[in-house]
Amino acid sequence: MKFLRYIARHMFMTLLSLLFSVLILAGCVYFYMVFQLPDVQTLNDTRLQIPLRIYSSDGQLIGEYGAMRRNPVTLPEVPKPLLQGLIATEDQRFFEHPGVDFIGILRAARELIITGQKSQGASTITMQVARNFFLTPEKTFSRKINEILLALKINSTFSKEKILELYINKIYLGQHAYGVSAAAQIYYGKSLNELTLAEMAMIAGLPQAPSKENPITDPKAAKVRRDHVLQRMLELGYISKDAYQQAVSSPVETYYHGPKTTVLAPHMAEMVRNVVYQQFGDDGYTNGLSVYTTINSTLQAAANAALRNGLVDYERRHKSYRGAERNLGHVPARLGIWQDKLSDIPIENDLIPAAVMEVAGRTIKAMLVNGGVVTIPWSGMAWTRRKDAAHVARVGDVIRVVQQNGQWQLAQTPKVEGAIVALNPDDGAVWALVGGLKDSETGLNRAIQANRQPGSSFKPFIYAAALAKGFTLSTVINDAPIAINDTGDPNNLWRPGNDDGIFHGPTRVRLGLVHSYNVLTVRLLQLVGIPYALDYISRFGFDKSVLPPSLSLALGTAQVTPLQMAAGYAVFANGGYRINPYFIQYIKAADGKIVYAAHQPVVPGSQTATDPASPPAPRAIDADIAYLVTNVLQDVIKHGTGYAATVLKRDDLAGKTGTTQRQVDAWFSGFNRRIVTTVWVGYDQPKPLYEHGAQAALPVWIEFMRAALTGTPEQTLSPPDDIVTARIDPDTGQLAADPDQNAIFELFKADNLPKEGDGEDGSMDAADADSTDGTNSEARIF
User: Fold this and answer.
1) pLDDT tier at 98, thresholds 50, 70, 90
2) Is pTM, for the whole model, over 0.85?
3) Catalytic one of 56, 57, 456, 763
4) Pairing relation of β-strands 476-479 and 763-764?
5) Are 697 and 562 in contact (CB under 8 A)?
């Protein structure tokens, strides 16, 4: 008995010592871990990685950049069945345990002892929050202990609702989707409140294996997981038997939905992305910046349509149909197979890929990526010059279709390219910009990167310099053959000619610009002097260092972009002020604070000049010069190369066509007081278009301006006080005598009226050029 008491006493002391040692060890470990744990209060200030989003001026989404797709939501914005599905499968006792489900841990420990594998993590939603915000995903015991301690700390600090809200916005759900809202958009193209029960169950089942078992990567495995979620919801009484049966019988129909942009402006989106990256670096992609551009969504849509239609129509005029892009074979029993294949083919400016389902007589039926079936009548494919529909396409062909004037038409992606830019002439805001149709192939933004010769559309700047030098619109220049030597080599002569092959003799300056006479313009530049012209033209925003210092400048041999041309023409449109094109209005941080706001120079007294922080735009040229050139450019449309624009039935339009040598580039730049628009058409690898600017570019300008000006009153420049009207002799350009029945009216600066004619020809020729200040001393006219 005494021996037993001795044994018992020693056993008790041993157990007590062991327990004490364990407690000390546990305490040391606990305090060690606690001091190493981060401050969970930082969750109150958590900044989730939110992508960069770019919007039009009226709040329409243009583009989104960032590896993580996320759209944070509050708990009340999440449908109750989705939350129930997450809790049913991820953490059934979420609202009962203290952040750690010890029953689950014991179950996982038993599994570890039996199998020797860590197959069950027993992670609660709170533990997942701890891991996602503070820890790494590696599976180690030390990380698990940290996770448990953090979960206990988070649970004691925050409400269950706050924890759940953190979870639904942070959790990774596959396909770059972070949070339930992003998952709804990526997998179904829907907002949370548009999801069906089956779709909510699918999303609720993703946290377990988001990369392997999502409905895009493995639809079968995803369906099994979805049905398991529905089963758990049924067992817990969250849904009825009927709802369960209907949901589990729903097929898995989904595909990757990119950012749901509502404005097609990929070139503008890339311009903004580049600016944001230069300013904010990689943080610009994750800090939830919202950039509001100057783009007007209505005008952008009109620009997209105008350029697309113009390029498609050009190809129809010049090329036969090239045929299908590929063939998908026979019509499958499940049309979703074709839909999946069509979804991999990019839509290029509303040129939609479609799969031919039926060819009959003179009609084609084709399926779009959304499953809709469209019918193309013969009128929509007659341009192919084929005999009938069977000679155009066959079943399974992937073709391009476009809807024009309410009718579906066969189309093809043009090989020719183009660009269109529309500006506010008062402050330079870019209202619309399209840098081409095939940005996905080349990455080239032709609106700002295509440095091409502008041809005759550059002439207004030459004429403005001439008026500033003292010439008038009635000055007569001899449009006669010339030979020019710019190199000093008498055997290397340049003999410019007019486009129509005719020389028109003594001609007034106004008519030289209206009818775009090349030789007259070259002679005029010779008289003005190249140094003076270069200095003056640089006032319009062109870099003087890249302008050719030769008489070829008169024919538009400079290298310019459509954006630069639009900015130059804005000086005429606004009465002589230089503006700087810009495309970002302001940038908002994720918390709503404005981190950048544009305060661009604005034309004084204009309707745009409402921001007191905006400085006045500097004057580039005199108001009278801007007015006189604009008046002539209005005549270009009424009587000259831009005559086709009279179809718009407006008297406030002004503009100029441009065509380069061998018809490689086609241009039209035009404006009224409210808007300036430049259009360029050409091939990326320069080759002849076999059309002038009036045929290739002007129709695009007309279609866009028709939409842009609908419902707007006519707006023209008011004549400056020193502009006067005088009667002149149309042959000599001098003031007409009173009884002259052939006299016409012309505009002048009050201090630059010509003399009254004495019957002599008042034209200027080479002899005048030799005595004119600023004449190019290196050029001779023979």
Assistant:
1) confident
2) no
3) 456
4) parallel
5) no
